[in-house]
Amino acid sequence: MNRFWVVFLKEVKWIWLNGSLVPWADAKVHFLTHALHYGSAVFEGIRCYDTGKWPAVFRLKDHVARLFYSAEVFKMEIPYSQTQAYNAVIDTVKANKLRECYIRPIAFYGYGQMGLNPIGAKVDFGVAAWPWGAYLGKEGIEKGVSMRISSWVRPPTNVMPTNAKVSGNYVNSILAKVEAIRTGFEEAILLDNNGNVAECTGENIFIVRNGALITPPTDNTLKGITRDSIMQIARDLGIEVREKLFKKEELYAADEAFVTGTAAEITPIRTVDNKQIGFGKPGPITKKLMAKYGEVIHGKDKQYEKWLDYVK
Ligand code: PPE
Q1: Within a domain: 3
Q2: Domain boundary, last residue among 130, 158, 181
Q3: Is the CB of 227 within 6 Å of ligand 1?
Q4: Does one domain contain both 89 and 153?
Q5: Are residues 163 and 89 in the same domain?
Q6: Does the pLDDT value for residue 123 go beyond 70?
Q7: Which distant-in-sequence residues (6+ apart) come within 8 Å of 100 by Cβ?
Q8: Which tens digit of pLDDT belongs to each residue from 160-179?
């Protein structure tokens, strides 16, 4: 059975836009915003978690650094420093009194210039935050999700800069996502031009084989911050981690498989192309990593405190 989950926005009070907090309903852009027409924007997805004491933004500095990397690839000049962007995120969470939320900073070519050349066009920057639960459904976390190999291919980096979080890249993800849902699956896995497993529409992918974690190198994918966290956590737990290319056969034959992303966190894969992965339920290594990740993001493990930026 196909399950549809639609993410309705839970509105909060304030959105940070171009230097100040404005009421949610007033954070609007013009019809002739460059980015609306051409996808000329760079963005981030960040999560903030309740730690009991204060809310903590997970790996905020790394997300801000990636935002500026994406802008650099694009040669877009964000009119704020990394410190100002960092503070904008903290201020947005604080102003909305959110204890747990998803955070969306975005820098985009704004209003005033049309045509494909954005050089010299105004760059707007904003940060929104809102409560957002399980990205692939609560049942997805508990039982795993059904995936298909997409007929759409992840573009190579000489076609689109898939290492950068550029809005325009996401048309490829949307095509794959809609195809998956319309054909009865919950999420899509995209291969690269050579038939190697690349990533999902909004997540990186891991398989488990003989007790070791395997994930594709990030040549054709986003360098996921959750992916990096899981690799570090797994190694600290004594689990072997290998970055290597693999084809869909190896995915079908995996003992376990899961995806990682800020929004999706760690979500197990139950089936791929209707073929059961392992026992068709979250496997032991997946469950171990999910449990540890849960402790880390909620500030329950001192070793990883360095990844938390408290909103005091
Ligand atoms: N690949 C892609 C294509 C991607 O969009 C994401 C994040 C990842 C991998 C994982 O990266 P990281 O979040 O740093 O671990 N996808 C974001 C957007 C989701 C959305 O629907 O919008 C996210 O998870 O925030």
Answers
A1: no
A2: 130
A3: yes
A4: no
A5: no
A6: yes
A7: 47, 48, 49, 50, 55, 131
A8: 999 999 999 999 999 999 99
